[in-house]
């Protein structure tokens, strides 16, 4: 009897709906080729759902997802719903309730994709951003004081727990052991005088457990400059929730386009489902026009299959993505004239 993989798909908003169709097309084709079954259940949770129900998902939404092997997400956010409402109503609760503390975002300069940085060859940018995903600067703790007066101020708290910091640092070092044995820490301990010195302290302690791994750390401001000047310096880059979020848009932009970048929200202990999504957002300006690049969604699907014990299918999808990015058909953002559907179909056929 063949394995069945049960996936909750949440296309979400904007181009999430366009690229999800292609992600499913490619994963279904991979399943047929490699002899397993994909069993999809689709959820319409989104800003449209919010407009109808006053919430991004039902009150028991997390429980509805609990028994799936993984969650496959498109994009979240649309004009009319404030971004903090849409993110905190859907994406962030899933990450937190399922303790998906490791957000893994690989960055690779693919053949056929042009870096905006001069003289960069395919493969010359090859790093992994490891982003802390459940605490840090992303938070709802805080308060307004003297609201509506001249003395108005707002205070937001960032929480860094020893457990939370150590487990993401450990994850980054373990990743480095399987790659180039180099970990860079993103910090800002010269300005953020409480949380970031603590982060640095835990980083130095964690590094002692991995004498084979070369380490360095940069303040986030100069780190962004070095991503642009010297992206080949980096192997694994570990950062807090906010810094990792910023770096994982910047790095794929240096490698050509954020549109192809994937993201795995992992619960490494596999007690809960993990979630896979493209790094990009819902891009309302091009939603429904049929020109969104589906590669970020499809690459995220490859990461999902790898996580769920189908490494051959995952690798085949990556080869198919590389072939189509190099030879076409390609969407306009990567220099072609193809539609989202044409590119998705080409990747499915290249398997
Ligand atoms: N692909 C999911 C999505 O819509 N991401 C956009 C976004 O703003 N994400 C914020 C985050 O990853 O924390």
TrEMBL record:
SMART domains assigned: Iso_dh
Pfam families according to UniProt: Iso_dh
Domain annotation Isopropylmalate dehydrogenase-like: ranges: 6-347
Record field: transmembrane: none
Cofactor(s) of this protein: Mn(2+); Mg(2+)
UniProt entry keywords in alphabetical sequence: Manganese, Metal-binding, NAD, Oxidoreductase
GO MF annotation terms: D-malate dehydrogenase (decarboxylating) (NAD+) activity; magnesium ion binding; NAD binding
Catalysed reactions, as listed in the record: (R)-malate + NAD(+) = pyruvate + CO2 + NADH
Enzyme Commission number(s): 1.1.1.83
Class of the enzyme per the UniProt entry, highest EC level: oxidoreductase
UniProt record similarity statement: Belongs to the isocitrate and isopropylmalate dehydrogenases family.
PANTHER family: D-MALATE DEHYDROGENASE [DECARBOXYLATING]
NCBIfam families given in the database record: TTC (TIGR02089)
Protein name: D-malate dehydrogenase (decarboxylating)
Higher taxonomy: Bacteria, Pseudomonadati, Acidobacteriota, Holophagae, Holophagales
């Amino acid at each position: 009897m063949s394995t069945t993989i049960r996936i909750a798909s949440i296309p979400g908003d904007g181009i999430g709906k366009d690229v999800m169709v292609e992600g499913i097309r490619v994963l279904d084709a991979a399943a047929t080729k490699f002899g397993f079954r994909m069993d999809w259940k689709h959820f319409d949770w989104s800003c449209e759902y919010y407009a109808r129900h006053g919430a991004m998902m039902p009150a028991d939404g997390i429980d509805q997802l609990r028994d799936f092997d993984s969650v496959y997400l498109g994009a979240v956010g649309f004009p009319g719903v404030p971004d903090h409402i849409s993110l905190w109503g859907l994406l962030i609760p899933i990450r937190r309730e399922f303790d998906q503390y490791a957000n893994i975002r690989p960055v690779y300069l693919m053949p056929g994709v042009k870096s905006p940085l001069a003289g960069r060859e395919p493969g010359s940018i090859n790093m992994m951003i490891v982003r802390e995903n459940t605490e840090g600067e992303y938070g709802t703790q805080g308060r307004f004081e003297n609201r509506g007066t001249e003395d108005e101020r707002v205070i937001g708290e960032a929480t860094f727990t020893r457990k939370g910091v150590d487990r993401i640092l450990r994850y980054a070092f373990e990743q480095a052991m399987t790659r180039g044995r180099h970990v860079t820490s993103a910090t800002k301990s010269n300005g953020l005088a409480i949380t970031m010195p603590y982060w640095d302290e835990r980083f130095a302690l964690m590094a002692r457990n991995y004498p084979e791994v070369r380490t360095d750390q940069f303040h986030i401001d100069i780190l962004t400059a070095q991503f642009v000047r010297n992206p080949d310096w980096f192997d694994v880059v570990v950062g807090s929730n906010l810094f990792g979020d910023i770096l994982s848009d910047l790095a794929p932009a240096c490698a050509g386009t954020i549109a192809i970048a994937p993201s795995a929200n992992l619960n490494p202990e596999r007690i809960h489902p993990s979630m896979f999504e493209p790094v990009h957002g819902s891009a309302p300006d091009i939603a429904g026009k049929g020109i969104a690049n589906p590669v970020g969604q499809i690459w995220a699907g490859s990461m999902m299959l790898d996580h769920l014990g189908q490494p051959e299918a995952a690798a085949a999808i990556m080869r198919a993505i590389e072939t189509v990015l190099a030879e076409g058909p390609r969407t306009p953002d990567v220099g072609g004239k193809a539609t989202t559907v044409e590119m998705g179909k080409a990747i499915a056929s290249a398997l």
